Fold this sequence. Notes:
By secondary structure, the chain is of the alpha/beta class. It has seven helices and 35 strands.
Amino acid sequence: MLFYYVLLSFFLSLAGIIQPAENGLINVQNRSRTSLNGEWKIIVDPYENGYYNYRYEAFDNSPNPGKAAYFTDSKAAGKTELVEYDFDRSESLIVPDDWNTQNEKLFYYEGTVWYRKKFDFSIKTGTNQVFLYFGAVNYIAEVYLNGSKLGIHEGGFTPFIFNITDRIKEKDNSLVIKVDNKRIKEGVPTLNTDWWNYGGITRDVDIIEVPGTYISDYMIQLNPSAGKEITGYIKLGGIDISNRQITLFIPELNIKEKFKSDSNGKCIISLVSDSIQYWSPDLPKLYSVTIAAPQDTINDRIGFRTIKADGSKLLLNGRKIFLKGISIHEEKPFGGGRANSKEDALQLLNWSKELGCNFVRLAHYPHNEFMPRLADSLGIMLWEEIPVYWTIQWENESTSQNAENQLSEMIFRDKNRASVILWSMANETPVSEARNNFLIRLSAKARMLDKTRLISAALEQGSYMGDPLKRTISDPFAEVVDVLSFNQYIGWYDGTPEKAETITWEITQNKPVIISEFGGGAKAGYHGKREARWTEEYQAYLYEENIKMLQKIDKLCGMSPWILKDFRSPRRVLPGIQDGWNRKGLISEAGEKKAAFYVLKNFYENKN
Ligand code: GCB
C-alpha cells in the first residue's frame, strides 16, 4: 500500500499536479522580494474559451496552442488577423483580493478568471535563483510565464512557489494565471460549505531571489519533552548543498553554533540552554534568530514553548492552561471579503484580545501568514486547520492526496510559530471506515512533519446510551487525537437555551476537551425578549446557559465559540435578518458588538 502511495505521488508530482511542500521556501517575508501586487488585467471566462478549443481539447496539450490560448497573451498582428481577446484592453482587478467584492458582476461568480501581469525584472546577481511565490489562490491556479506552463496548484489557502530562474526575462514578462474557483465534489473543501467561496489571487504574489545555495527550510522549536533543548533542522536548497557550514545565532541566549549539512543539504539541530524564557500569552517572548549559510542569511523571530496533553490536562510550558478562545473566518473585519492584509489580521486579533481571549481557532482553512506572525507577538495561541469539512470524498485517493498536500503546506509555513499549538485535521466529518482511514492518514502525516504540537479535529457529539439528555463523543477518531474537540449547538440547532441546564456530559476519553464551536445567531441592533430568535438578548442568553453547562465538564480545557464576526454565507438567506450573512458573530460586519460579546468577555475576564 505504501509503495502505491509513493508511486502515485511520484507520478502526480511529475504531472505538476501536486506541489510538494518540501519544495517550498520558508519565511518569504524576510527574503529579497519584489512584489507583483497591484493592478492585474483580467478576462472572465465562464466557458474556459481561453483554455479549450471548440472540440473541448485543452490548448495546453497541443504542441502549438496558437494565439487563441489566453496564456499566450497574444494580440492580433495586424488588421486582418483574428484574435478574440486582448488583455491590454480588458478590465483590471487588484491583487491581492477576492474578485467577488471588487466587481459587482463577479459577486456570485464561480468559474475561471484569467489574470495577467506584465513586468520587467533584472536578476540581482547572475548566480541567483529566482522563485515566483503565491501566498494563496482560490482554488486551482494554472500558472504560465511567457507562454509556457510553470505548473498547477490546487487548494485555496496555502502558499506555493515555482522556480523561474530560466524562464524570466529582463523585459516585458507576461505572467498569466488561470484561476478557477468552481466548487468540485472531489475538492478540499467539497461542494458544500458554510462560507463564501471567494475567488481570485487572494494573497501576495512576489518574486523571491535567493543565492545559488540558499536556506530553503528550517524548523527551530523546543523539544516538547525537554524544555531546555532547542531541536529541529536547517535545510539548504539549490546547488552545492552538501558539507556546507551553517551557523545558527540566537544572540540573547549566547548561541552561536556551527553545523555541517549532509548530502541532502540538511543538518539536525540540538542545543541546550538554561536561560530560555518561555513564550506564553502573558509574556510572548520572541528571540531574534539568524541562520547563516555560506551565501545566504535569514532572520526570524521565534518563541520557545512546550505544549502537551497530560491525561485530561493541557500544559503550556508544563503549567495547566485554559484556552479562552473564539473562532474566526478569514474575512475582512469590516464589510466582508477575504481578509488579506496585516491590518485586517491585527483588527481581528485585537477584537479577540478585547474579548479576553488567549486562543483563536482559525476556521476552517489556513489563514494568511500575518495571522500566526501577529499571534506570536500578541501572545495568542492558535488552532490551525485544513478545509476537510463536512462530506469530502473519503474514498478518492486524489482527494486524500490533496488534503495531505494542503496539510503539509500549512505545517511547512507555520511550524516555527510558537502561537500555533494545535493542528486540526477536519471539521464535523461523518464517521465511516473510509473517513476514519482518511483522517488517520492525515494525522500520521502531521505527526511525521511536526512532533512539537498537538493534533485535534472538530468532532460531533451524540447521545450517550440512547439518552437524549446525556451527551458523549463516540467517534473513533477521538482515540487518535491528542485533544478531544467537538462542536455542539445546544440552544440553537438543538433546542432553545434553557435546554442547556438539562444536559449532562459523559466524556469517557482521558484527554483535554475543547468545545470547538457553540453559538447562535443575532442581528446586531435587533432587540426583544430573550426567547425571541435573532435578538441580541437570545444570543446573550444562549451564551450564559452554554457557559454554565460547559463548565460542568471536568475535562474542559478551553473553548472557541462560533464566531467572532458575522461572515458571508450563501446558505444564509433569511430576509431582513441574514441577507447572505451567518449571524452567529459576536460582532456584526459593521463592527458593532452584540450583547453576547460582553457575556463571553465577562466569563473570560473572571476565569483563571
Ligand atoms: C458548524 C460549522 C460551521 C458553521 C456553523 C453554523 O457546525 O462547523 O462552519 O458555520 O456550524 O453556523 O451553522
